[in-house]
């Protein structure tokens, strides 16, 4: 018999124990005020500093960038280490990692496409959250049709001059750097004229304006670039290679490519449905606990099956013999399936709450302090960002099922 | 719930061998011809299944089997499910599992070897109707009141009446064995409940694996059609109204296959969660297979409504496999008690 997943899981037992022990000793606990649900809602300085300190602490313990090369600030550990760490952080209900864009997509992109100088300059500070990153892809007129973006970069001596309007800029207010897409060749066909920049945010001509999300929370911005001058070394890859690097970025963002430096544990495995069950236990429906209602039980169990299937997908995705027929299917559907599952589950929680679901954060009678409504509203970030569910269905239909292009 | 999956080169080899052999032996035209015939199958196929070692896949080696586990079984049945195998391999496998798990030593020594070689056809009769493969069986591992017994299918008193079935690739019969005289040696030592308690998780995984193969084959069949069938001057697969439901089938099939192999791995490892995972796999299989089949008929349009289109063959298989060892609602009720506690 050859290698088995079971044996490999066992190899990580000592690491698991170590991380568990570390979390027990170092978990920061409840700050006593409202924490954001994810990096998408970081809206004030107190939240920002608390979360930044937490990421630093984790980095200093070796749990951020565990597999990244040590010359760039990583811990140089073998493949599979970060996944185990993230699983244990989820199990230990650790707070999320603030520098989301940096750890999970900007950083992996720099590792793959950056020059030696860029890797040396950017990677260690982003792992330690000494420098925060945001993403400048979407524009008011370029969402799903990203390649129609109109932000321009014009070469002027030793600088690029940037003009444009970016939206959906998570962490924009706190960011030091931005992975920025801009058109460098107006004459080239759509995709070919785009270049990719590692652009500084703290320069004249960059104005960050907060956008208010449908929850009423901030944390989300638009950025106006007006004749902002950034150095020539800000370009990553070649001029005109931007679209290729952007597509690689989206693969990281969707969790379709491995390489994240950590923090991929929001929600935690089995965590959502377990808390839904606790909610059903606490609520009354027709004079008895909702958890005793056979219809509620059936729906809850269906969610449980779905969540287990998603976890089993992650296990199967690592076994080449079990994905040989459609190698791209699991990575490409991962964000789509998990975001729609999370949304349906949160919606069901709101339905269970009955008239209580009409109450919002701050009302003393709001069930579970309205966290489920907040989760439900926030879940649309996941079904829209990084490729909408509709775009992902097109991609899966075309790349995995061989259907002709929609257009 | 531990969702680790074990799958190595031996499993991949079995898959390659099974896929190649089944593709050659059971092109859809032959499956249709057998389904149209009176017998519904060809005895030569059964002999071949015996000589390939697949009838005894999960029979311990000391009784002439291959001694393999649930992951191997899932691989084999996923592949037979793709081809709508018109032989009662699944029913025979369930009988072998019941005998192996719950038979006395004497019963195992007497019956498992001829079962594995194909010399003696043995099928499981957990109920009195829809007994797969009963008509041509030599022996039934059949429920009699609160026990299971090994009953000669052609002996005096056995009434086995073929049913008129929706899915003609899987023949079944109504079985009445009340008048068969049995001595005590014919009864499995354990109670029927105990036999079923051991068998059910394996049956759920086996059924779910076969259903996963069928759903996967349907997806391939339908995607090939929609990629080429033209309306409005374009292949219909370019329309999102067609493409997106196909992707919904894909997402279902992918999740189902993952659950099947996680459950099979847990069974082989003897995990405490194995039965819950197995029932999850069966629940999902019921929903995914019927959904895949309904979309297949629908997306084939007018052609899908005809007997000439292959989609309905799978639709009928999906509909008729659904109740075996419990449909999705049944599984979820069991799972709810396990995961959420008792309702009262």
CATH class designation of the largest domain in chain B:
Mainly Alpha
**Adjacency order of strands in the biggest sheet of chain A:** 1-4-5-8
Radius of gyration of chain B: 20 Å
Write the CATH homologous superfamily of the largest domain in chain A. Answer: Butyryl-CoA Dehydrogenase, subunit A, domain 3
The separation of the N and C termini of chain B measures 24 Å
Shape of chain A: globular
Report the CATH topology name of the largest domain in chain A.
Butyryl-CoA Dehydrogenase, subunit A, domain 3
Classify the fold: give the CATH topology of the largest domain in chain B.
Answer: Butyryl-Coa Dehydrogenase, subunit A, domain 1
Query: Biggest interface, which chains?
Result: A-B, 54 and 56 residues
Outline the low-pLDDT stretches of chain A.
Answer: 1-9
Range of helix content of chain B: 55-70%
The named CATH superfamily of the largest domain in chain B: Acyl-CoA dehydrogenase/oxidase, N-terminal domain
Q: Unreliable stretches of chain B, pLDDT < 50, 5 or more residues?
A: none
Secondary-structure topology with pairs:
The complex is a heterodimer of chains A (407) and B (344).
Chain A: H1 5-11, H2 13-26, H3 45-60, H4 81-91, H5 100-113, H6 116-127, E1 133-136, E2 152-156, E3 159-166, E4 177-183, E5 194-200, E6 206-211, E7 220-231, E8 235-236, H7 242-253, H8 271-282, E9 284-285, E10 288-289, H9 294-316, H10 329-352, H11 371-384, H12 389-400
Parallel strand pairs in A: 1-4
Antiparallel strand pairs in A: 2-3, 3-7, 4-5, 5-8, 6-7, 9-10
Chain B: H1 9-25, H2 28-36, H3 43-51, H4 70-82, H5 89-102, H6 105-117, E1 122-125, E2 131-132, E3 139-144, E4 147-152, E5 159-162, E6 172-176, E7 187-191, H7 192-228, E8 230-231, E9 234-235, H8 240-269, H9 274-299, H10 301-304, H11 311-321, H12 328-340
Parallel strand pairs in B: 1-3
Antiparallel strand pairs in B: 2-6, 3-4, 4-7, 5-6, 8-9
Helix pairs in contact in B: 1-4, 4-7, 4-8, 5-6, 5-7, 7-8, 7-9, 7-11, 8-9, 9-11, 9-12
């Amino acid at each position: 018999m050859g290698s088995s997943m079971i044996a490999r899981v066992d190899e990580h037992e000592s690491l698991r124990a170590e991380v568990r022990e570390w979390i027990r000793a170092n978990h920061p606990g409840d700050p006593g005020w409202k924490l954001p649900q994810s990096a998408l809602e970081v809206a004030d300085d107190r939240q920002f500093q608390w979360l930044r300190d937490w990421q630093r602490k984790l980095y200093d313990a070796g749990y951020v960038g565990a597999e990244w090369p040590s010359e760039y600030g990583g811990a140089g550990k073998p493949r599979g280490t970060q996944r185990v760490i993230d699983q244990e952080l989820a199990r230990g209900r650790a707070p999320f990692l603030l520098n989301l864009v940096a750890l999970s997509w900007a950083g992996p992109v720099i590792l793959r496409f950056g020059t030696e100088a860029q890797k040396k300059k950017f990677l260690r500070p982003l792992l330690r959250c000494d420098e925060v990153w945001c993403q400048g892809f979407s524009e008011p007129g370029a969402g799903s049709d990203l390649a129609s973006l109109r932000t321009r970069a014009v070469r002027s001596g030793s600088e690029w001059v940037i003009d444009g309007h970016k939206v959906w800029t998570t962490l924009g207010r706190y960011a030091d750097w931005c992975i920025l897409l801009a058109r460098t060749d107006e004459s080239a066909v759509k995709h070919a004229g785009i270049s990719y920049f590692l652009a500084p945010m703290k320069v004249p001509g960059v104005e960050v304006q907060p956008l208010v999300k449908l929850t009423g929370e901030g944390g989300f911005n638009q950025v106006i670039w007006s004749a902002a001058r950034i150095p020539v070394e800000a370009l990553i890859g070649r001029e005109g290679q931007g679209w290729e690097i952007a597509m690689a970025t989206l693969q990281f963002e969707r969790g379709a490519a491995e390489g994240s430096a950590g923090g991929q544990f929001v929600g935690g495995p089995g965590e959502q449905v377990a808390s839904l069950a606790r909610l059903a236990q606490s609520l009354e429906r027709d004079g008895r606990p909702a958890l005793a209602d056979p219809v509620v039980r059936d729906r809850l169990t269906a969610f449980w099956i779905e969540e287990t299937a998603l976890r089993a997908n992650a296990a199967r995705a690592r076994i080449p013999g079990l994905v040989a027929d459609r190698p791209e299917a699991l990575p490409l559907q991962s964000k789509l399936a998990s975001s729609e599952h999370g949304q349906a589950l949160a919606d069901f929680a709101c339905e269970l709450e009955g008239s209580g679901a009409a109450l919002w954060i701050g009302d003393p009678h709001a069930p579970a302090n309205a966290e489920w409504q907040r989760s439900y509203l926030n879940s649309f970030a996941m079904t829209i960002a990084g490729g909408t569910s509709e775009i992902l269905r097109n991609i899966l239909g075309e790349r995995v099922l061989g259907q002709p292009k929609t257009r | 719930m531990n969702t680790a999956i074990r799958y190595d080169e031996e499993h991949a080899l079995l898959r390659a061998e099974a896929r190649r052999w089944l593709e050659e032996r059971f092109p859809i035209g032959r499956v249709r011809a057998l389904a149209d015939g009176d017998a519904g199958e060809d005895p030569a196929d059964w002999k071949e299944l015996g000589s390939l070692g697949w009838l005894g896949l999960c029979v311990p080696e000391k009784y002439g089997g291959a001694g393999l586990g649930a992951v191997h079984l899932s691989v084999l049945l996923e592949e037979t499910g793709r081809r709508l195998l018109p032989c009662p391999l699944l029913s025979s496998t369930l009988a072998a599992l019941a005998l192996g798990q719950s038979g006395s030593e004497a019963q195992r020594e007497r019956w498992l070897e001829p079962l594995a070689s194909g010399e003696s056809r043995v099928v499981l009769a957990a109920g009195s109707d829809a007994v797969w493969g009963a008509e041509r069986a030599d022996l039934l591992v059949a429920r009699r009141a609160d026990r299971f017994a090994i009953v000669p299918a052609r002996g005096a008193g056995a009434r086995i009446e073929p049913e008129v079935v929706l899915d003609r690739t899987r023949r079944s019969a109504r079985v009445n064995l009340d008048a068969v005289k049995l001595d005590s040696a014919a009864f499995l030592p354990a109670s029927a409940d105990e036999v079923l308690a051991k068998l059910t998780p394996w049956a759920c995984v086996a059924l779910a694996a076969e259903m996963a193969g069928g759903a996967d084959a349907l997806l391939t069949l339908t995607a090939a059609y929609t990629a080429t069938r033209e309306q409005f001057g374009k292949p219909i697969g370019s329309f999102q109204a067609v493409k997106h439901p196909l992707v919904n089938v894909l997402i279902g099939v992918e999740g189902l296959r993952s659950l099947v192999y996680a459950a099979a791995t847990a069974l082989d490892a003897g995990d405490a969660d194995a039965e819950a995972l197995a029932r999850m796999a069966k629940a999902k299989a019921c929903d995914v297979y019927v959904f895949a089949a309904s979309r297949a008929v629908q997306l084939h349009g007018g052609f899908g409504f005809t007997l000439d289109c292959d989609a309905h063959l799978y639709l009928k298989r999906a509909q008729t496999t659904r109740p075996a060892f419990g449909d999705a609602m049944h599984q979820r009720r069991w799972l709810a008690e396990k995961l959420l506690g008792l309702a009262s």
